[in-house]
Amino acid sequence: MVLQAQSVWLLDLAGNCPSSWSLNGFDVSTAQFPHAAYLPSNVSLKRFDAFEPVIPELAEAFDVIHLRALCVVVKGGNPSVLIENVAKMLKPGGYVQWDDFDPDTFITYSPSLSISKTSSDEIIKTWANYAKQLNLHFEWLSTLPSLLKEVGISTLQTQRFSYPSSKLRKAATDNWMMALEETMYVILNRGGEEGEKERFRNLLAETVEDTKAGVGMWIDFLSVIGRKTGL
Predict the structure, then answer these.
(1) pLDDT of residue 3 exceeding 70
(2) Which of 114, 149, 155, 229 is deepest in the core (most CB within 10 A)?
(3) In what order do the strands lie in the sheet with 43-47?
(4) pTM of the predicted model, to two decimals?
């Protein structure tokens, strides 16, 4: 089972596992699902809200659950409902792999003190302020192993990935620039103050110039693997 809209991880797994394995992907919306014609025969994608009560057919139905990039849908810094549902859907002895990014570690860096990153710093600050207005808080990510333990899932491995290798710095920065642009426009379309869209467009253009000069961006990635007790 995978909780991730585009199911990239699931489709990659499908190409490296026996066809007898049943692979199921879920998301709150089907909008980003690949067309069914492109899916292997053992892959199924369905709509499911991970914050709603677990339906009987999903209870203790999965040997492995993979979750990815859910920090931006957990409101109030409280993932308890989500984590409890994961525990309910796992079979006894089943495994969970949770991969997420930690927005509290969002930073910029410059290759030289002579190259300004003022606009880049400002755009990250702007994003963080809007996240708080949407009641998004990310402190819980640092305590994820403890939160999983409360529902009977013991952590086997925790990894935090900080700073990409030199060959990936540009690619990582471009990725976060696209993410910033998309999420900020979504936020502003929901009710930003007058003039905020234009201000953001200008700030984004200035940040692009920063990155052309070598300024980079990074957010830590967190990966936690755990196992449910029972076997």
Answers:
(1) no
(2) 155
(3) 43-47, 23-27, 2-3, 62-68, 90-109, 216-228, 153-161
(4) 0.89
